[in-house]
Amino acid sequence: MTGLPAWLARWFDSRIELSPEQRQRLDAWRALPQADLAKPLAGSRCVVVDVETSGLNLQKDTLISIGAVAVANGRIALGDSFSVVLQQEKVSQRDNILLHGIGGNAQAEGVPPAEALLGFLAFLGKDPLVAFHAAFDNTMIRRAIQRYIGFHFKHPWLDLAYVMPGLNPLFARRLRSLDDWATHFGIPNDARHNALADALSTAQLYLVATAQASQKNIKTYNAMQHLEKMQHWAGGS
């Protein structure tokens, strides 16, 4: 279990009942080489992700769906996408369903969580992740993986909620949400709060970010992370 002492890793693993085939898939993913984050973005792959949840409480609410799309070699790879609804032990509240549109039957009949999350890992590989307000997506995915697969998911993330203000300081006070930035750059989204649709919208914003960053000689994922870190230090998002 990456990032945990061996004894604690074994303890977590012992609590999770994965089938031999699922365990093999997980071991295969863990054995993949790490992505080269110093490689030029124009020649690499990253995965842009969005999630839908039962609410906004990071401690109590649950992961309902994941939508993800790959950006490879500077382009959105529409054929390289992923979408899944995780089977829920308890259907979310009506107001929550009205927000994301995933009804009670769809939640109850979703993909068993361990299988859904193993599918996400297989799609992701070891390529880095991109999101808008990444801390939320990261926490919800990490908690679900810990609960249903039994290991500590530690992965590189890039947060466009900080990158975009860093690249566009004149708009930083006026443009705050994903909707704000998407509207400003003319990025459509006809299915807001659908995880895959939001991931696609975020991916288009990421292409705007990489084009702007390239003009500032910021051409790698590592360099984009440094820009994000500087924006954190500056106290802006």
Tell me the CATH topology: Nucleotidyltransferase, domain 5
Number of domains: 1
Enumerate the strands of the largest sheet in spatial order, edge to edge or round the barrel: 3-2-1-4-5
Radius of gyration: 18 Å
Mean pLDDT: 91
Tally of helical runs? 10
* Number of strand segments: 5
| Sheet with the most strands, sense and barrel status | 5 strands, mixed
What structural class do you assign from the helix and strand content? alpha/beta
Query: Under the CATH scheme, which architecture would be assigned?
Result: 2-Layer Sandwich
Taken from the alpha-carbon principal axes, the silhouette is globular
Q: Measure the end-to-end span.
A: 32 Å
* Name of the CATH first level: Alpha Beta
Kindly describe this structure.
- This protein is of the alpha/beta class and 237 residues long.
- The chain has a single domain, classed as Nucleotidyltransferase, domain 5, CATH 3.30.420.
- Helix content is 46%, strand content 15%.
- The chain contains ten helices and five strands, in the order ααβββαααβαβαααα.
- It has helices at residues 6-15, 20-30, 94-100, 104-108, 113-124, 134-148, 160-167, 178-184, 195-215, 221-234, and strands at residues 45-53, 63-72, 75-85, 129-131, 157-159.
- A five-stranded mixed sheet has the order 3-2-1-4-5, with helices on both faces.
- α7 packs across α10.
- The longest helix has 21 residues, at 195-215.
- It is globular, with a radius of gyration of 18 Å.
- The chain starts with 5 loop residues before the first helix and ends with a helix.
- The model is unreliable at 7-12 (pLDDT under 50).
